[in-house]
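Design a sequence for this backbone.
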């Protein structure tokens, strides 16, 4: 009873209901408390809260919502509703800068990077020529799978990691295997994925230019927000694949076609289930199969290549470059590197000089020739070095008669 809140010291005993008290006023109630308005306000507020709670509990048109259960955070985010995006929108969100293929412009360019992103750039370009049916999303995923496998092997060889890999421990199960640049990669086949699906819904290049140049500011901002939301949703949805997609991939594994592929992240699967049975049954029925996500691979490429500094007399202190300018420079550097690589691969495939099946080994050999020189052992792990794009560097890998 609300009356129990009233002070016994005031010798006031009320049997009034919460409803009648809530309809009262501070002035009336304060008289029952010897003029203490503070207590009167507290009692009035309490009565109103009780009355409101009762009305919600008894009114069928206003059901009290059950307390939201705290969702247990999974090891990998749950996929978002795939109907909100299209394959064409996904591929567009993954676009890399247009390769710059002017040999004269490339000749004197020297970049600074570490080995892993350079290898990723080699693989993504290689797949464009020896697995042309693969969309950009697949090329980025497979490229990251190769880089991850290569990095782990290196880490084991220099003592940074120990023990068997997830593949060696049997986590690969019966997933199909493709060989990319000499590395075996476990893959998930993306049956039914058409990278052009939904393309008609995207604005044409001319329309995009019109929007950028002539639309009111508010419309441009709204478009940018929508695009950002789409990319964010896509990143979430690619982290894991649901049970139905996995079953479809397994059932269709024997088909002769070459559909788009995802590179499976076996190390993440092992880390998520360290005590689970490492059987083919487990790997083919897991509801959260981790993959190497294309957005993370794209982001890695965009942020990893800087221009090697040119020594200047006087050793003047360098001014700090704004983040936006630095990001634009890195994007241009990636465009230059991709342009140099494409010129090299084009020289290899022209006239069938190098068979498609041998492009991977040729690419690995070329990568080893131009990768940054770093110290041996642990000291060289992640160390950055220089990569020239001219004839003494990447362009020098081109076909020579």
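Sequence:
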């Amino acid at each position: 009873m609300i009356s129990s809140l009233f002070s016994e010291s005031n010798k006031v005993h009320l049997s009034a209901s919460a409803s009648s008290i809530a309809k009262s006023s501070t002035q009336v109630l304060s008289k029952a408390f010897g003029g203490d308005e503070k207590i009167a306000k507290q009692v009035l507020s309490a009565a109103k809260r009780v009355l409101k709670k009762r009305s919600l509990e008894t009114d069928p048109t206003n059901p009290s919502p059950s307390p939201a259960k705290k969702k247990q955070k999974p090891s990998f985010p749950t996929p978002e509703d795939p109907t909100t995006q299209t394959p064409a929108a996904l591929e567009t969100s993954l676009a890399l800068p247009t390769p710059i293929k002017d040999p004269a412009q490339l000749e004197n360019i020297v970049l600074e990077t570490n080995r892993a992103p350079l290898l990723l750039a080699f693989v993504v370009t290689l797949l464009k020529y020896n697995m042309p049916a693969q969309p950009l999303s697949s090329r980025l995923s497979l490229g990251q799978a190769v880089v991850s496998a290569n990095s782990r092997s290196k880490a084991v060889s220099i003592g940074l990691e120990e023990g068997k890999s997830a593949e060696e421990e049997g986590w690969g199960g019966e997933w199909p295997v493709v060989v990319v640049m000499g590395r075996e990669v476990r893959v998930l086949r993306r049956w039914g994925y058409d990278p052009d699906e939904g393309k008609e819904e995207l604005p044409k290049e001319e329309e995009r230019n019109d929007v950028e140049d002539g639309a009111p500011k508010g419309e441009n901002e709204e478009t940018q927000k929508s695009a950002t939301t789409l990319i964010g949703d896509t990143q979430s949805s690619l982290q894991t694949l649901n049970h139905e997609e996995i079953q479809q991939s397994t059932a269709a594994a024997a088909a002769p076609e070459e559909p788009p592929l995802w590179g499976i992240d076996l190390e993440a699967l092992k880390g998520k289930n360290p005590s689970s049975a490492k059987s083919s049954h487990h790997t083919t029925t897991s509801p959260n199969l981790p993959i190497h996500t294309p957005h993370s691979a794209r982001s890695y490429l965009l942020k990893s290549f800087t221009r090697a500094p040119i020594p200047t007399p006087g050793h003047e202190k360098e001014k700090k470059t704004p983040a936006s300018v630095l990001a634009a420079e890195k994007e241009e550097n990636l465009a230059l590197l991709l342009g140099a690589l494409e010129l090299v691969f084009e020289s290899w495939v022209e006239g069938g000089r190098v068979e498609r099946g041998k492009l991977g080994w040729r690419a690995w050999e070329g990568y080893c020739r131009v990768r940054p020189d770093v110290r041996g052992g642990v000291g060289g792990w992640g160390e950055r070095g220089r990569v020239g794009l001219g004839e003494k560097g990447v362009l020098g890998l081109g076909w020579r008669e």
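The mean pLDDT is 77.
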